[in-house]
Amino acid sequence: MNLPNKLTLARVFLTFGFLVFFFAPIPFAGTGALVLFVVASITDLYDGRIARRDKLITNFGILMDPLVDKIMICSAFIAFVDRGLMPAWMVILIVARELAITGLRLLAVSKNVVLAADRSGKYKTISQMVAIISLLVLVSYPEWGPWAAALFEFPIVAGPWILWFTMLAKWVTVFFTVLSGTLYLWTNRALYLEDL
Question: In this model, does residue 111 exceed pLDDT 90?
């Protein structure tokens, strides 16, 4: 098994570890969840780059890398609903978009068509990572001591800046999720309209 595929598989275990820490009633659980999610995000960043650079692209990687990404992202957002950090309707939109695009890609594969990622999808991914990490910081910074409280609770307008930033990040994620999904389905509509 090559390095990019090992990184992809590692992301599965990191996602599982993230969820264990996120829900564990132990000291520094939030910090552990944050660290594991950041490490998982880094593996996501590098597995594709290494595969392209070293010409290690495999069918396993083509199939599993986006699937594992979606498992990681959707797991985090669903976990946030359980903790009351995100409204369910936002997460339903995010998960529905991911499932719809995965279905479209599987349909494309069955027709020997390769669907390239578009720019709005990249913005969507970045916005999701920022939202998840900001929510995890919000959960974990109280574990870090008085210096963290002074840093993250610095007031802007009517409350701490981390609350405003996190709220904005959630709305930006929903915006790019809906936009990128709509554009992707519209651009590639010929794939599914011909089967209706």
Answer: no
